[in-house]
Amino acid sequence: MITSTYVYTYDSIPMPTASITSKKSRLKVYNHTNIYLKDNSNFEIELHNPTPSRYLAKIYINGKELSKAGIIINSGQRVFLERYIDQDSKFLFKTFEVDDVKETEHARSQNGLIEVKFYKESENIGYNLLVNYPHTFTYYNTSSGLSNISFTATSMLLTENSIPKSIETGRVYEGEKSNQKLVQSSGDFDSLSSFVYNFQILPESTKAIEAQEIRHYCPGCGLRVKKTSWRFCPNCGEEL
Predict the structure, then answer these.
(1) Which member of 3, 42, 176, 209 has the lowest number of beta carbons within 10 Å of its beta carbon?
(2) Structural domain boundaries, residue 94
(3) pLDDT at 224 > cutoff 60
(4) Domain identity same for 46 and 133
(5) What percent of the chain lies above the pLDDT cut of 90?
């Protein structure tokens, strides 16, 4: 579980930003990092650059680098990235249950983790330490067939008290085919990131209910109570 996000902000200074969106609408962020989605939900990563410089956005998903390539965001440009860089598959969030035990805690911490790092285009070549990222968006199929895999399973009898409780978690997978196209570009960018954004997508079922989301109804007729100032139900007169 991510406990903090490292976003460097400066008053009145424009900076590139990253957000998680659904159908190009920004999703609400809870506790600075948490975002909640339903099972089998597609999403996008919004990248916006309001600065006069170009930036390279490097993306990490489920704790792993999305691609050796990055997304170059030109000055004033806004991009809604809906797909993997190296293959035309949409971002898909899927949920599943695991045992809620300490042994799975570390593995769960990487599930649904989205990290975006922005690298500014180098201006003083010869003075800045440069890193040459491959900017060619090469499409290739990373899947491969698996064969000749064997394993040994040890069975054990679980009593009702020994069965651990389960907890729902979720990871980002490759979804249906995306029609979004990527165009090759190039440039030299700083080796150190200027801005870093962290998000963690979690199952909607794990979201805590906020006070304003709790609905109250009249015990007499079932009418929804829309105002806290109501002392009596306007429909049946029942005391609230």
Answers:
(1) 209
(2) 17-140+162-208
(3) yes
(4) yes
(5) 48
Examine the domain organization and report whether 187 and 215 are in the same domain. Answer: no
- Please report which helix (H) or strand (E) contains residue 107, including its range: helix 102-109
pTM of the shown model: 0.68
Average pLDDT over residues 38-62: 95
Indicate if 108 and 124 belong to the same structural domain: yes
Tokens of 47: 């990248």
Matching residue, tokens 């069975």: 155
Mean pLDDT of the chain: 78
* Together in a domain, 113 and 35: yes
Q: Has residue 10 been placed in a domain?
A: no
- The tokens describing 125, both together, are 């070549």
Decide if 217 contacts 236 (C-beta within 8 A).
no
Q: How many domains is the chain partitioned into structurally?
A: 2
Dihedral pair phi/psi, residue 204, rounded to 5°: -60, -30
- pLDDT of 163: 58
Average pLDDT rounded to a whole number, residues 11-34 = 90
